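I am still learning, so would you mind making up any protein sequence you like and the tokens describing how it folds?
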Amino acid sequence: MIYEFRTYTLTVGSLREFLKRFEEGYEHRKKYSALAAFWYTDIGPLNQVIHVWPYADAAERDRVRDESVKDPNWPPKVHEFIVSQESEIVIPSAFAPEIKPGNAGPIFEMRYYQAKPGGAIHQAMKTTEAALAPRLEHSSLAFAGYTEHGSLNKYIHIWPYESLNARADIRKKVVEMGIWPPKGGGGNWLSQANKIMLAAPFSPIQ
């Protein structure tokens, strides 16, 4: 399976209308394939939406996109609100759960790390997997994967929390316990960033 992460930066003040029009269009688009998630940012880079589409492989993505753009209701009529667009094809890590519908958040933290070129991303996956089990005793992981197309050598991991306070408490606890972040992995990264996201009303994962 692959996931396409599409990140759009919107004009200031347009989020509510963008979501309304996207949802209207999605009612027609979902007969071709369903969303995995749709988030919008609340902390970090503002005025962004992130929609995540799962596909069996690149061939299915091409077929579905070719079919859906023939639908008069897709893409949604939101072009006037878009400042920039980015698309990344992300390969799930071996330890990553599938993004499934249901209540997981409502707070989602997306952390994205830029790995050094030359195989560091795969070494980082091994380090992360080795340390993950005790970390998952404190909160769940929604997704983890690395980019195959788009911004290369990027590791994306998404953590749901019931509140910002819960996030802060859990992160403080796992650091104090010495179980997270994974030991020995820091040398693989060039940069790190994060954003706090909320799910749109029509997002399958909430």
